[in-house]
Every structure is written in structure tokens, then in C-alpha cells.
Amino acid sequence: MSVRQLDARTVTALVADATAAPSMHNAQPWRFRYVCDAHTLLLHADLTRAMHHTDPGNRSLHIGCGAALFNLRVAAAHAGLPCTVHLLPDPADPQLLASVHFTPAEETGPPEPAPPGTSARLGTCTPGAPAAPGSAARPGTSAPAGQDAAGPAARASAGSRADAAGGAHAPAPALGSAADAAGGVGAAAHAGPGRGTGSDAAPATSATQNTVAPAAPAASDAPAPGSGADAAVGASASAAFDDRGDTEDLRSLYPAIALRHTSRYPFEERDVPEDVRGALVDAAEREGAELLFAGTWHTEAVLELVRDAESRDAIDPAAAGDLARWTRRGPDAGAAADGVPEYAFGPRPRDGRSPLRDFAGRRPVPDRGGAAFERHPHLALLSTHGDTPADWLLAGQALERVLLRATGAGLATSLTSHPLERGDLRMLARDPVSGLGHVQMVLRLGYGPAGPATPRRPVAEVLEVTQRVREV
Ligand SMILES: Cc1cc2nc3c(=O)[nH]c(=O)nc-3n(C[C@H](O)[C@H](O)[C@H](O)COP(=O)(O)O)c2cc1C
């Protein structure tokens, strides 16, 4: 069997799209490794970028990485590259958050033409440094995606992202500190099965169109068993999902990857139409999560929790330490490749009703004016049924799906995780009447100025390409 591989340029482009995802304080806590022989891209947590005080259980870290994984799925669909995703494929290695196996054409049947203008190449893969952005695709065996890209297989029975999260591998150990001290609901305390398998199992959402199937790489692709990475690339024991039933919707989201930026500006006092709200709720459901638009009472309650969290942080030196580490001011703002630059802080809120983290804290920022924010912000809460690392990855994918849809619908967005970082406040954020499960993120949506683009580290810093899984 001829083994065709993604070339370095294509892998680089996919990872560049993945890293456009939001992450807490723009810490970009991810690393990628492409294993050529196995056609598999591995997503790892980068614990050097964890926030031990603000995010002691690494919940937010997983959410950011889940968002990056979702962008990767969108970019793969856009490029006409079918793939199979495993969440937490190796129970022995909790830093390995996901593996993405790109299906060679031999495994799937006749090729599906990729959309015109896409960059997919199935050609030689050279271990070492990833291709520089903009460099030419490697000559030789590269071929346009339309000729080589793997085609769709018959759709298997519908499942959900939650099924994959709750597969045989669900009780993965948590990263970092054992317990989510702030939330009291961290992975260690809740390391039972995720949705779909445990006592809190919920039915798969009917809107979910993704295929769930046991992953069985072709015999020649599977590395010899042994190391944790081997298991991840082989991944035959864990549940998997692919997007073959969902390609069109994923492709339609691609342009929004580059357009989505957090906007910490005031939004208009204008309603978000029902059909747009419905589309965002649907986006969350497709990933196995729930999006709930807060009513008047609930909005007031969440605003109060944000203010509470702000005032606690104002007198907490450790919180100030995380903020100082991840904010970029003065000349650093233009030069840094990570963190939140001062030009993205937005104006200082004058009326105290905006659910925004003030990244300046008490520090002066030259030329930063104040502004009155909307009196009636549109807040939506993203929740999951479980609260394990797999649920956080699921939440990250759902978050990014919602954000990309919102961006495509002309909405500006910002996020606040502030009240969710303290266990007592997080409990109160849930709508006691209709809210399910565990709140993972508070979104603010509306019509207003787009936020500025913030920097990302070069792909070469976050991507490693190896021929075989054992080369590390
Ligand atoms: C888990 C998570 C938590 C976040 N929490 C906040 C927050 O509390 N306040 C805020 O203004 N932005 C928050 N953000 C947004 C990030 O600051 C933002 O994504 C990052 O600075 C990159 O900027 P961008 O979204 O414009 O690409 C959060 C993002 C994630 C993924």
C-alpha cells in the first residue's frame, strides 16, 4: 500500500489555524507533534504556560486547547482532509490531550475534491522543522488535494462529542495539581466516566452529526505498541469521532477563524435575533455542550459575580502576579508573541456594568480612555454535564464553534471566566432553574467594534515533525 502523507506546509497551515484560537490570557498553552508515518497530529498541553493560581486545576488550559482542536477540525474540513479525533487517547499521559489521525485515501475509498483555493497537499513529510509560513509546498510527490484527498466514507451511526469524551479512556488523570482547589469540582474529584458512560450520562444530542467509531488505523500505519505515544497514535482502545457528517458546516466556519477576536469594547443596545441565538445554541449542542442565554435576573446575578471576582482579585497578590505575567504593556505590547497586549484591553469601563476583566488592573495605561458599556449586556453561559478534563476539552470545542458562528453572523464577542475561577462563585453562576451541569464559560455577545488581532507564537515554536512516534 502506498502511504501518502501530509507535507510540512500543509501541517504548518493547519497548526497556524489551530493556534488562532482563544486561550486564557493568550497564554497559548499547546504544543503539536506531527508523526509522519502514522499521519497523526498530537496535541499536548504545555504546562510551562499553566496558571497555577488563576487556573489551579487546568480547566481553562483544557478549554483553550479544545478551542485550538476545533479550529484544527475546521481547517482540516476546509482543506478536504478527513480526520479521526481521539480525546485524551493515552490514560498514562494526561498531557496528551488529543490525537488527530488524517485518513489516507487508501482507508476511505474514492477521493473527495477539496474546495477550490484550499491548501491541502498529501505529499512527502519531512521530519524536523515545520515549513516557514508562505514557503512553497515541497516539490516531488505533492499533489493537489483534489487528486489525493481522502473521500467520505459511508456515515456510521450518529453520536456526539460527548460519546468520545466518555469513551473507554474517560477516567484520565488530571494535569497539574490534583484537585481543582478553587472549584472543588476538579478532575481529581470527578474523574469518573464522562457523559455517555457514567451515572450522569446524558442522551446524545439529536443535533450532533458527527460520526463515532472505534479508531482502527490501517495496519501499516499503526506503530508498535509500547510507549504512551504509541498508544495514542494507535489509539485502538478508545472511542473516536470524525466529522464526515459535518463537513459542510465546519467548512462554512473557516473564514471566521481569522476574523474572530475578543472585543472588550462597548456593544450596542440591540437585541441578538432569535434565529441567531438558535444557531449559537445549536453550535454548542453539536459539540455536546449547552449554551444558555441568561434572562434578566440571571444576567444581573452573573454581573454581580464578576464584580465580586474583580474585587477579590484586586486584593490578591497571586492573581495580580498571573496578570502581570501575561499582560504586555509599553514596548512589549508590540513585540511579544503571547499574552494580552495593552491595545486589546479595551476602554476602562465607566459604569461598572460590563462583565470584563480589566487587564490593566491598577496600572496606568497611556491614552486609555474610559467608556460607558451597554446597560443590558447579552450574556450566554456554556455548560457541560460533567467536569472532567474530557468535558473541558469538549467545552473548548463548543466554545470555539459558538464563537466562529457568532463571528460569521456579524456579532462581536468577549469572554469572562473570572467568576468561574473561584469555586463558590462558579456554583452560583449556574441558572438554578434551567441550567444543567457545570458552567465552563460566560460569553458576552453583541453588535459592536471588532477587537484587535492579538499575537501568536510562530508555528515553528509549537510544532515538531517526526517520522515515527518513537523519535522523541
Ligand atoms: C478559558 C478562557 C478564559 C478566558 N477568560 C477571559 C476573561 O476572563 N476575560 C477576558 O477579557 N478574556 C478572557 N478570555 C479571552 C482571552 O483573553 C483571549 O482569547 C486571548 O487574549 C486571545 O485574544 P483573542 O481572543 O482576541 O484571539 C479567555 C479565553 C479562554 C479560552
UniProtKB/TrEMBL annotation:
GO MF term list: oxidoreductase activity
Sequence ranges of Low complexity compositional bias: 123-192, 212-231
Region described as Disordered: spans on this chain: 104-231, 332-371
Compositional bias of kind Basic and acidic residues: 348-366
Gene3D superfamilies reported for this sequence: NADH Oxidase
Name listed for the protein in its UniProt record: Nitroreductase
Lineage: Bacteria, Bacillati, Actinomycetota, Actinomycetes, Kitasatosporales
